[in-house]
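Reading a protein record of the kind used here takes only a little practice. To see the layout at work, look at the sequence and tokens printed below.
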Amino acid sequence: MKRVLLIVIVTLLVLGGVLYVLLEPIRRTAVVVLSEDYTPSGDGALAATFSDADGAQRGSIDLVPRVADLEQPVEIAFPPGQPGIAVILERKGRALWVDRGDGSRGTLLSIDVLTRSEQGLLGIAFHPGFASNGRFFLNYVARRDGEGTTVIEEWRVEPGASLKTAQAEAHAVLLTVPQPYANHNGGQVLFGPDGKLYIPLGDGGLKDDIHGHGQNRETLLGSILRLDVDAPAPHVPADNPFVGQDGVRPEIWAYGLRNPWRVAFDPKGRLIVADVGQNAWEEVGFARAGASLGWNPWEGRHCFPPGEDCAPGEHIQPFWEYPRNVGTSITGGQVYRGTALPALANRYIVGDFVSGRLFAVPVPSEGDGPVSAADVIGLGKWDIHPSSFAITPEGELWMADFGQGRVLEFASNN
């Protein structure tokens, strides 16, 4: 009897393994085939509409076109020591320099990237000392060893050279992270006030964190990484929270993320993370060294899957969230610090990639919130697909519109 039972168990395990091997290509294909096609939904007219989904408090702004005729822009950066120059990334692999004065533009670099689903050239960060060292860093997805892989790579130009004429060259790969699926890549790179490079990564994709990456610190997926690019490889800062711990990757600074699509440091140096939800909630919260943001036992402030019990734990809960009647894919923003829109001062300006809604959210002065829904200012629903936000050197706010291929500036309509 025991022999028969053993044979049955072994047979089931073998069949399970075969089934997994057969299903995995189908899963990967489904991510691409079923991904939404985010094409322009209208004529791109810049006028807001309002409904109950925009909340009780309303704000009025203008969105002024600054750069047009782009192809799927995903990131905007302002390189130190290059007054009047913006750099814009296009998802399919091109980085453009744009003169903010006369509107002239040119190609800073062009690389081969994978572009299925959410892949592509996704992030750029200029070293704080770029004006004197010419160093900058890219986050992109390319094929390495036969699979889609996030690549964190250092590039350089001649120190002090104008980006209008500089020859950008790849210098060194800092990190590669294989991606099991073509979605949830994260994709950003940014320098913190401490001079370290932060890299938000998604949970690897498909749905429901099928491989359990969010809470698994043996993998880099589902985490925010922190590197010291001024130190020798592997560039791990000695004060990263998990250095020296067995079974934990030392590059990890925080974890428990699904798909952090844009993070930003606020004026107090706190890292604000916008994490795209699964079935019900989009969320914004703080990340801290060594802390979990909750995914996947939690989606926002709610147990996941819905209806199941989950222990409170010690993760950081978001200070703001919104349900699916408002939008279905959050794009993280920036804390406004300009002068053109005084009513929005010190608020976190954020949008939804799918619905085109914009909000100005108060940032908790202390603690992790939550903020009251009554204190959030709705800025309306627009014919846009906001893919990133950036603060100009003057403190004003620019936004990339993925669908219409343009960059817009927030402005007063008074």
Remarks:
- Helices lie at 2-33, 130-133.
- The CA atoms of residues 144 and 178 lie 8 Å apart.
- Confidence is low (pLDDT under 50) at residues 18-22.
- Residues 2-33 form the longest helix (32 residues).
